[in-house]
Amino acid sequence: MSEILKIEGVEAGYGKFHVLFGVDLVVKAGEIVVLLGPNGAGKSTLLNSVVGMADVYSGRIVLMGQEITGRPPHEVTKMGVAYVMQSPNNFGTPNIFGELTVYENLVAASAGIPRGEAQRRIEEVFEIFPKLRELRERKGKFLSGGERQMLAIGLGLMKKPKLLMLDEPTAGLAPKLVSDFFLAIRDIRDKLGISVLLVEQNARKALEIGDRAYVLVTGRIKYSGDAKSLSEDKLAELFLGAETGGETPTYADAPRR
Ligand SMILES: Nc1ncnc2c1ncn2[C@@H]1O[C@H](COP(=O)(O)OP(=O)(O)OP(=O)(O)O)[C@@H](O)[C@H]1O
């Protein structure tokens, strides 16, 4: 299976603030790879490193055989990476325009794509997120957090990326919506053939749809392997490490460092 993304021995951070220490991670074609870890472990920083939004001090980042270490965000986006950041103001995907409707936002994201193809892609987005079809005439500024998140992912899909990086797409969503999101992410892989690198706090559900998983703790990979073999006990142990004493909290209760 070919490698879409290969991160090798990456040391990265922000200026003098060193966050990642020798991180290796691979996303192969057609995979959903889940990246877990406690708050502040460096998960977002790893995604930022891929799109040139964090400083990579050493190591290599390779996208479909081409080295992209340190390349600026717009170049990496052009090369096939869509990055839906945690904040509502997404980067790497076009921003959501509050005054435009859902449909108009999708059309705006299709600049440079021939009309027929753009319509096909909008239809694909509506198939992945049927809710967006219902809301097609609603202005961006009136969307709920979850709906905005769907649109942000939809905008990313308009560019037909090879790799979709999602940073906590289900954060703050109602439980029913969370399940729908995970199904949508699986559809993105299954129906559109896009590989996914998914950062999630919702570990159990993410591992259900994931093929492989990595656990990052204080900037170092502490687990890499099959998503299904990562048990809750193992996760709790990895998240809390040596600090665990007495009653073992679950990884969901892991304290902020
Ligand atoms: N732009 C930035 N400039 C400087 N430091 C930053 C920046 N972004 C994040 N950090 C710091 O880098 C460290 C790792 O943060 P990061 O957001 O990568 O962790 P995370 O694992 O994604 O956490 P969370 O689960 O809370 O989102 C933290 O100490 C954070 O404060």
UniProtKB/TrEMBL annotation:
It comes from the Archaea. Residues 5-243 form the ABC transporter domain. SMART domains: AAA. It comes from Pyrobaculum oguniense (strain DSM 13380 / JCM 10595 / TE7). It holds the Pfam family ABC_tran. Belongs to the ABC transporter superfamily. The keyword Thylakoid does not apply. InterPro entries: AAA+_ATPase (IPR003593), ABC_transporter-like_ATP-bd (IPR003439), ABC_transporter-like_CS (IPR017871), BCAA_Transport_ATP-bd_LivF (IPR052156), cNMP-bd_dom (IPR000595), P-loop_NTPase (IPR027417). Residues 208-257 form the Cyclic nucleotide-binding domain. SUPFAM superfamilies: P-loop containing nucleoside triphosphate hydrolases. This is ABC-type branched-chain amino acid transport systems, ATPase component. Gene3D superfamilies: P-loop containing nucleotide triphosphate hydrolases. GO terms for molecular function: ATP binding; ATP hydrolysis activity; branched-chain amino acid transmembrane transporter activity. The keyword Nucleotide-binding applies. Keywords: Amino-acid transport, ATP-binding, Nucleotide-binding, Transport. GO terms for biological process: L-amino acid transport.
